[in-house]
Write a structure and sequence with these properties.
heterodimer, A: about 200 residues, mainly alpha, Four Helix Bundle (Hemerythrin (Met), subunit A), elongated, B: about 525 residues
Chain lengths: ~200, ~525
């Protein structure tokens, strides 16, 4: 009785359904981060001076490096999806593998940054700016980690020949998720690092 | 009704716990949700009875104040998060959404099973939090929730998981309704239960992440001292209330919209008349979902929000009454000159309309600023939301359980016992909660174990009513058990209803329909010779 539905569903409908599902899921993610962005707005309006002074303590260079890392990874994902559409599985696996590596680089840089901040005595409870900073980048980091797991899994499946130009739903949808994670960072960078 | 193979037990054919724990059949998952949520309904009910027992006397007599706080917190938290929110959508919705649209299952059966087990993980964590039980009320308001010694972080995490399960279920339903409809099942031929469920799912998907992150922040405040809600570090406790109600007000409609959907099914079947104002009822569900997102501030009139914001929220709140009234008037118009019969589902549906009208009409007292300042946090509020939540949602749930019992179990209920149970529930409910309107109007505040002696009589009446209500509910569920054990076999379509779930065997076969049906008409053509072409 397991999977009695999948056998009968038209593959085109299944693809559309999966796509709609992921978009709806991304809507929940927007709302998840949306609450934090709302809190950010409220507190920045309340304490503009504090936000300016505190943000100077962040490492802008590492923040910029991480932005470049994530944008490059998004490009690789797009290339990967494009490759599988034309049936080039090998190239797609390379792209997704490289993306996972860049994700790891991002997290390592983040680790260095957080360590630096802890050494300066800046903790999540220090003040409202750093509460926001650690919560937002922390939640984003968890999403990067989750994205890496998904992309790695999809790459392994692709390596085993599970996808072709006629069936690549998981490749496209996991890529969509990665673009979302990237996009969140694009908003975090100016809001946290580039206030002044 | 069709020539389907008669297996007798349909989707219930396979036995053993594995056939349930690993099932991807939406019907079995729905049944598992129903059993789980009903169990919590009973546990939450026991807490309610303990509260009423304590309130028999003006002085604290049986329990300490702290125990009383724990009881009302657990009553609220369990009833809301573990019963009312999941019961109709995840239980009855899971069972009947695919059947209503003529599909074999939901769009993502595996995800559906996963969301059930995430729900189980969630309530296990909630139970684990009982080692140091919550005493904050179900609203978790800061700063107290950030400071109390109770297991706030654990309970928050449990509710986070339950929320995740609710998001995944809502997402699954949205995709199912969009993608899995049978040939000919256009949007305007869908049963109204589906419109209600669709609106519900949208709210679940959009609102739940916000409360998830709120509880995450609360847990972080307790663990790492983040400053979001802590004024000494620049945070704002009122922000917690905003976040909390941004979820918890829309979720009121997650509770009520599916129940309204059930009523829209039951009323035409037992009046033998086409539903009046199909499109008005359908779109009012979406309107309620939309407006529901704009009114959360009416829970916070006394929180120190700006008077301008108060005025806006108050004004917007009155707007919600419009689509709600649209539904009620259309139901009444459906009843008008119908050939009404009073089987148990219909009795509960009519009870819904009556009690929900009382609950709805006492809303403006609380939505208007001037009266709310007087009535805020009194028993008037308790009475109001029990009339809407229990008199509304739970009565709708009972209507649905009685209506679909033959379909789900393949057995008929004892109608006479069902009516006795209904009479007890109706009587007990009104004795308990109508009295509370008066108690509240006289000024008795909620959430205290002790009260002034002048409220004594009203509280004794409420407590007696709660006992009658409890007996009624026990009789009802005893009747369900008797029905499952030795009820006569149900025909495919005992109510002569036109929606698709009744056009297959009772209980349905695992694949729901022998052949995917082709839909040519709307499902409400009762008493029409040839039906209407939509």
């Amino acid at each position: 009785m397991t999977g009695h539905v999948e056998e009968r569903t038209d593959p085109r409908v299944a693809f559309e359904a999966a796509k709609l599902g992921v978009w709806a899921f991304l809507a929940t993610e927007v709302l998840l981060f949306g609450a934090l962005f709302t809190a950010y707005t409220v507190f920045r309006i309340q304490y503009p001076q504090l936000f300016y002074e505190q943000h100077l303590k962040l490492n802008r260079i590492l923040g910029t490096v991480n932005t470049l890392v994530l944008i490059s990874s998004s490009l690789l994902v797009a290339l990967g999806v494009n490759a599988i559409r034309r049936g080039k599985t090998r190239f797609m696996v390379i792209c997704y593998g490289a993306t996972v590596l860049l994700g790891a680089v991002f997290l390592c840089v983040k680790y260095v940054e957080w360590t630096e901040e802890f050494h300066k005595g800046l903790y999540p409870g220090t003040n409202i700016f750093f509460s926001l900073y650690f919560m937002m980048t922390g939640l984003h980091g968890i999403h990067v980690l989750a994205g890496m797991c998904v992309l790695a899994y999809v790459a392994v499946l692709a390596h085993r020949g599970r996808f072709s130009e006629s069936y690549y739903t998981p490749v496209e949808l996991s890529g969509l998720y990665w673009h979302f994670v990237d996009l969140v960072w694009i908003y975090l960078l100016p809001l946290l690092y580039l206030i002044g | 009704m069709n020539g389907e193979p008669e297996t007798g037990r349909g989707y219930l054919e396979e036995r053993g716990w594995r056939s349930w724990a690993y099932t991807m059949d939406h019907k079995r998952i729905g049944v598992m949700y129903l059993c789980t949520t009903i169990a919590f309904f009973f546990i939450g009910g026991i807490f309610a009875l303990l509260l009423r027992l304590e309130l028999l006397s003006p002085q604290a007599k049986y329990f300490s104040d702290h125990a009383y706080n724990v009881f009302f917190t657990l009553h609220g938290a369990m009833m809301i998060f573990l019963f009312i929110i999941p019961a109709i959508p995840s239980g009855l919705g899971n069972f009947f959404i695919p059947m209503h649209i003529g599909a074999r299952d939901v769009a993502f059966p595996r995800l559906n099973l996963a969301s059930y087990w995430i729900f189980v993980a969630g309530f296990l964590v909630v139970i684990a939090s009982l080692v140091s039980p919550m005493d904050t009320g179900w609203t978790f308001y800061t700063p107290y929730s950030a400071k109390t010694g109770a297991a706030v972080a654990t309970l928050s995490f449990g509710i986070f998981l339950i929320g995740m399960s609710s998001i995944l279920t809502g997402l699954n339903f949205i995709v199912t309704i969009h993608m899995m409809r049978a040939p000919g099942m256009t949007w305007h031929r869908m049963p109204l239960f589906l419109w209600g469920m669709y609106a519900t799912s949208i709210i679940q998907v959009i609102a739940t992440p916000v409360v998830g992150v709120t509880f995450l922040l609360l847990a972080m405040e307790r663990i790492f001292g983040v400053a979001f809600f802590d004024p000494s570090k620049g945070g704002d406790p009122v922000l917690f209330q905003h976040f909390f109600w941004f979820y918890s007000h829309p979720v009121v409609y997650v509770m009520i919209l599916p129940a309204m959907g059930i009523i829209s099914e039951v009323i035409p079947v037992f009046s033998r008349k086409p539903i009046f104002g199909y499109k008005a009822i359908a779109y009012s569900s979406l309107a309620i979902a939309f407006l529901g997102f704009l009114v959360w501030g009416h829970h916070m009139f006394t929180s120190g929000m700006s008077p301008l914001a108060n005025a806006f929220f108050s004004f917007l709140t009155f707007f919600v009454a419009v689509p709600t009234a649209v539904k009620v008037f259309n139901w009444i118009a459906t009843l008008y000159k119908g050939s009404i019969t009073f089987e148990a589902p219909m009795l509960y549906a009519l009870t819904f309309i009556f009690l929900f009208a009382v609950g709805g009409l006492t809303g403006p007292f609380l939505g208007a600023l001037a009266t709310d300042v007087q009535l805020h946090d009194t028993y008037f509020v308790v009475a109001h939301f029990h009339y809407t939540m229990m008199g509304g949602t739970v009565m709708g749930f009972f209507a649905g359980l009685h209506y679909w019992f033959p379909k789900m179990t393949g057995k008929m209920l004892n109608e006479k016992v069902a009516r006795i149970a209904w009479a007890l529930v109706f009587l007990g409910f009104n004795v308990t909660f109508f009295t509370m309107f008066i108690t509240g109007f006289e000024g008795m505040p909620r959430r205290y174990a002790e009260y002034l002696p002048r409220y004594h009589v009203e509280n004794v009446i409420s407590s007696i009513g709660s006992a009658i209500l409890a007996v009624g509910i026990l009789v009802m569920f005893w009747n369900f058990l008797q029905g499952i054990r030795k009820g006569p076999p149900a025909p495919g379509n005992p109510w002569r209803a036109l929606t698709l779930e009744w056009q297959t065997s009772s209980p349905p076969i695992t694949e729901n329909f022998p052949e995917i049906p082709v839909v040519t008409d709307w499902p409400y053509g009762y008493g029409e010779p040839k039906g209407r072409t939509a």
